[in-house]
Amino acid sequence: MAKPHKKSPIRDTFESLVVTVILAIFGTTFVLQAFKIPTGSMETTLLIGDHLLVNKFVFANHSGFLARYLPYREVRRGDVVVFKFPPSDEQTEPGEHFVKRVIGVPGDRIRIFHRQLFVNGQPVYEPFVHHTYLDQLRPGDDFPPPDSEYLRGATTRWSGGMASYVKDRELVVPPGKYFVMGDNREQSWDSRFWGFVPRELISGRPLLIYWSFETPRDEYMRTSLSDRISQTIDLIIHFVTKTRWRRTFMFVS
Predict the structure, then answer these.
(1) I want to staple 195 with a disulfide (CB 3.0 to 4.6 A). Which of 25, 158, 162, 177 is the partner?
(2) One of 6, 56, 88, 100 is an active-site residue; which one?
(3) Would residue 84 show up in a list of annotated catalytic residues for this protein?
């Protein structure tokens, strides 16, 4: 009887490495994506410096034979979603990734009056919402704005086209589009100011916070080489003391 061929340690290591790389590429392409929260628009649900694992599988294309067997689902009102910023005044292609909460799905009627959200004529209880300014109303606290009022901070394209979606002082979400807002309402630049998110730009749903590190509010604007070096040094020195250990492996809801 012939002896079984024995693989060399080098070949065995190489094959294991190839399989690992293939699985990693598949996972990051179709299943999971790492994402860092750069701003405070979703506080206190998500903090600046939270590092997320995003489930890209849940909102994937669900047509075909396998749809009934795989855990796909539609985007729902209340979901926290990651999406590419829709084309704006200056750009014709989708931009960087944003994270917000879905407030309205296709067909919903949206209105905000003195910070109280109404969907389809009913007030919505939002325990996750954070208000930074309590003393006075800010742009977007009443929405849609009166016909004669310009929404300060809105893009030119949205200011010109918003009225076509307004009926009886409510914003009607069109087919294939979603209305999103940040939980930190006065600190969020969202659908109130630039419009709807097309379904095809929604890439996933945050699954959990795998690591959270105390991060300055302006860090996302500090991108020079010297800034990057100082940020790396700060991470090395203060990894233990600035890591938010209680947020590690928290699920996002």
Answers:
(1) 158
(2) 100
(3) no
